[in-house]
Input
Amino acid sequence: MEYESLHDSLLETKIEEHDFSSSIPRLSDEAKKLSDKLSDKPMPFRTPNANTDRELIRYINGNNENNTKVKRYKSLAIGITVIGLPWLLSKVHLVKKGQLGYTLDNGIPFILSEGWHLLLSGFHKFQEFIDLNKYLIKIGPVTIVTIQDGYYGFSLNNGLPEILLPGRHVRNSPLWKYHKQYHLTDPLIEFPPITIIRVNTGQVGIGNQNGHILEMKDNSRYEINSGTFKFKTHVTVQQRVKKFHKVRIATQDGVQMCATGLLTYQLTNPVKLIENMSIKELDTNLEMCTEAALVNLFTKYPLKVLGFTQSDEHPPTKVLHDEQTPGVFDDNKEVRNHICDTVANVVGEISKEWGIQIHRFQLQELLFYDKDFMRNYENVTLELTTTEVKARAADIKNKIKIANADAEREVVEIQAQGIKVSAIKRAEGEARGIEICASARKTAGETMMDNKLAEKLALLDIRRQIVASSQVRSLAIMGNESQASLFLNPALDHTADEL
Output
């Protein structure tokens, strides 16, 4: 059997073209452009070299894989007559389906395919069977590894990193070391100097190369081969809610209480944030700023304008609700909104220097810090409430009495006003009647006088006509209208004409 320095030739492997299978999504254009820019050298991808059993055997054995096959009856007869049956049985091996046989021929690895094999050489020794169903097989210097779809395998070949693409790989070298395989959806794969970063929707990846902060925000995978690149963290750019639980505060009148609230914020400038602090420091700083704003604000309000919740052993008498749930504190909605808006504005002014935008702050509930004080306050509140109820009832009775008295007074006033109005109307009616009677009498008198004058004028006219017809030159009226004397006086002719 001839081996053409196969062991030495396998120490060198060729970098294959980046041949992705259908299970491996390609990089987006933006991600590939940035990956190439940050990489010092191409990614060392390796394509599978033993997807079939024949390829695997040829890789290990070269062209001598059939030299151990049993030559039917001829080889069997030679073994029985010349060597002897016991020795023959120790040299014959059956490789079942789904297996391979691993042997050493003069110290060199040799693979037996499926079927019967006869190892005639005294230096050719059988080692063990290989189960091809295992994804990792390591026997001596031979390593057989199967990379699953959607995974990358990582190995070192004489200290140099390799990336194994999905499929079956075989190496026959003591200097080749298999490391591990990673799923491509893993957020971060580091195999120095190789870094593979997965950035999902709503995330941003932050890295550092030569002191410069880099931002990876495309929804894709970044593959970087550089000794100077260092990935820092993933950060989310979606809205986040941080809960502040039982922040200790004091009211204007010195009552110790605990406040619980929600702060909604969003990262708008990841690079600016990383330049100032880490993600863990961000949570701490936001918490400190919000608690300080709450403590400062509550010192401006007395207890009576704030809602509160009792201990867990007792049902709440007052609850400070959020905006979605109406409650007792709705009476002080203006105060609550002022507190929430002020906290959001104060924290927002500080955090905008970190690349953070504050959307809102919600005050959920207030609790008494001292349970003993709470119980005493409950008793005092109950007594005060009872007193207030009694006082309110007495006040209502007094108001009813006052209302009744007012009603009676209004009835009397209305009656008096009616009598007054009636008298006035009656007097006005009588006065009007007198005026009408006087006017009627006056009108009647005037009418009678007018009638007498008309009668006199008519009588004179008759007399004038008589005089005219009698050729009387003068007419004198003497005495009553019934007595008259006629004189023939020419001087009175003109007077008679006028009449």
